[in-house]
Design a protein that fits this description.
alpha+beta, 15 strands, 7-stranded mixed sheet, 346 residues, 6-stranded mixed sheet
Length: 346
């Protein structure tokens, strides 16, 4: 049996709002093309920045900071249990077995570690997201701004993530998650039908999207209720990111919160390992207590924002398009949830 000190389970996915060339403007439209509201980010709050990057690029940048043999890819966990010596026994799907003193599980919304710790399955919220990455080998033609379009029960948007790539999404209401769909031709047909005649620009971006860059995802979340949900850690096993607090993408903070988790967890581990001010178990407990006041309200807020924006009620849509977006939505207050301050780890 192989002996490991620290084992980190991670899951790769597609996209997140985080960093690239700074975006300068947000424009919100109705399905008929009417502009409902717009603002320059710097005019609203100079301390805030909005950037976009393909998640693959971000993950590669982070992975490149580690030794070349530090990550074993395609290692899926099949079971986890405690040993008589208090260590954690891990079995992978290829029958590899490991004994770990510390397990940091960041293995996504279907985390087997979270299930072992007593967390319920994430809850479907009633919305399906279609997402893709348009590719322009000669250079994408769009300005550095975010474009949103709101309809009744459907919304869409796109944003450049590099000089050659543009991220797009369409979200629609559905009473059930429905069957898994991976056929690119069927995904293209569904997204085109959902979009209708909304946006020629978005239709063209979708046409420029390679088949292997289109996905369909039922949106789910799981609120870490105080006093009800299990804690983020048990012994020397701890959850990070979606494994602990999956949230809907309506605030653009899912992956960002996972990175925040990592920063706080690293600080706590440094206090335990380098300074000896607490045990590993206490460090994990302290991490969970510090992060909960941030991730719980964000999870709830993301859900409520999505329910409001996805409404197909004519009155709610009228209020959204004629009062909330034009008169109440401003860059500074709208992005306050993204503010996160922390001390340097060095």
């Amino acid at each position: 049996m192989a002996k490991k000190t620290v084992l980190v389970f991670t899951r790769l996915w597609y996209f997140c709002i985080f960093s690239r060339d700074q975006l300068c403007r947000m424009v919100i439209k109705s399905e008929d093309g009417k502009e409902l509201g717009s603002f320059n980010f710097k005019d609203e709050d100079e301390s805030q920045e909005v950037r976009a990057i393909e998640r693959k690029v971000l993950l590669e940048a982070l992975a490149n900071q580690l030794p070349s043999d530090a990550i074993s890819f395609s290692s899926k966990l099949s079971s986890i249990e405690r040993s008589d010596k208090g260590e954690t026994l891990l079995k992978l799907e290829d029958d590899t077995q490991m004994s770990a003193k510390i397990v940091i599980a960041c293995d996504g919304i279907r985390s087997p570690v979270a299930k072992w710790m007593g967390f319920p399955e994430p809850r479907y919220v009633g919305h399906i997201a279609f997402r893709g990455l348009g590719f322009y080998p000669e250079g994408q033609p769009f300005e550095q701004k975010v474009i949103y379009t709101y309809g009744r029960g459907v919304r869409a948007g796109y944003v450049p993530v590099s000089p050659t790539k543009v991220y797009w999404f369409i979200i629609n209401n559905s009473p059930t998650p429905g069957p898994k769909i991976t056929d690119p031709s069927l995904l293209r047909q569904i997204t085109k039908e959902l979009l209708g005649n909304w946006s020629t620009e978005l239709l063209n971006i979708m046409k420029s999207t390679p088949d292997d860059r289109i996905i369909r995802t039922p949106l789910v979340d799981r609120w870490p209720w105080p006093g009800i949900s299990p804690p983020a850690s048990t012994g020397a096993v701890v959850l990070v990111g979606d494994a602990w607090h999956p949230m809907t993408p309506n605030l653009g903070q899912g992956a960002c919160c996972a990175l925040e988790d990592a920063v706080v967890l690293a600080k706590k581990l440094a206090q335990a390992i380098n300074l000896g001010t607490m045990s590993i178990e206490d460090a994990f407990t302290s991490y969970g207590r510090e992060r909960w006041p941030r991730i719980f309200p964000l999870s709830v807020r993301a859900n409520l924002v999505g329910a409001f924006l996805q409404s197909d009620n004519p009155l709610v849509c009228f209020i959204r398009n004629n009062i909330v977006v034009p008169k109440l939505v401003r860059g500074g207050p709208m992005l306050e949830h993204a503010n996160f301050e922390f001390e340097s780890l060095y």
